[in-house]
Amino acid sequence: MLKTLFLLLSVLSLAFSKELIATTYPVYYPLKYIVGERHRVELLIKSQADPHEYELTPKDIKKLAEANLVFSLGVENWEKYLLTELPKGKLVFLNQGIDLIKYGNFPDPHVWLSPKRYMMVVKNINSALIKWEPNERVHYESRYNSYMQKLKELDRKYQETLKNCEHRIIITTHRAWDYLAKDYNLKTVSLTGVHAEEEPKPSQIKLIIQTIRREGIKYIFAEIGQDEKVANFIANQTGAKVLFLNSSLFPQEPSDNYFSIMERNLRSLKEGLQCHPRK
């Protein structure tokens, strides 16, 4: 009898739950965490495709239009296109209150790679959920506070780990780490711009080789899921070793989440920048 009642309640819960969609994983994970089991949360980009170059399909538009809410950072061109495709009030952009770095007219979307900067994204998610469903405020606030506690601890780890490093220049194949560099007192030199698919210029390759030799840098950082050919060429020219960072935060393991991926990124940064605790 109890088992039957439990199954009935589960079915009713699903029947009354709503569907929320996050466009990218850095938005999906905190949204899923804060919502918990209240509603269904889906991820739009479910592969390690470059989110900067993503092309919306008619099937995507249909799926997004059928959702109750769509959460997006709102800085990519294809994300802005959704404003013309989705009904008013359905799309939630999460870049409010964030000091975005811009290159010309193009904002850098990679705010999630700085735990400090990412806090505002999570705050905006929580605020949007409460505005949409004020009767669930207690639930959302509780889950949000739990997430923020974890995020503040991650920020503390980044501050402690990155404050005493032999090198403070991140040599990377993809210009994704400027927020992290700005927030944790580092510098970046990158092969390409914010779009990882760009072809590196010979002059930029030369500059990076010169920087590595001048600064005595021992490691360069390549992106998981991206072509390593140029990184390996630079490593061969300079004697530096290649380490890997995950800028899209797309999970590599079934148990992965934002925090486990960012912890791995921190371990790579610690090794590559040769960071040591103060004695």
TrEMBL record:
GO terms for molecular function: metal ion binding. Belongs to the bacterial solute-binding protein 9 family. The keyword ATP-binding does not apply. Keywords: Coiled coil, Signal, Transport. It comes from the Bacteria. The keyword Plastid does not apply. This is Zinc transport system substrate-binding protein. Residues 1-22 form the signal peptide. InterPro entries: AdhesinB, Bact_metal-bind_prot9, Lipoprotein_PsaA-like, ZnuA-like. One of its GO terms (biological process) is metal ion transport. Residues 137-168 form a coiled coil. PANTHER family: HIGH-AFFINITY ZINC UPTAKE SYSTEM PROTEIN ZNUA, HIGH-AFFINITY ZINC UPTAKE SYSTEM PROTEIN ZNUA-RELATED.
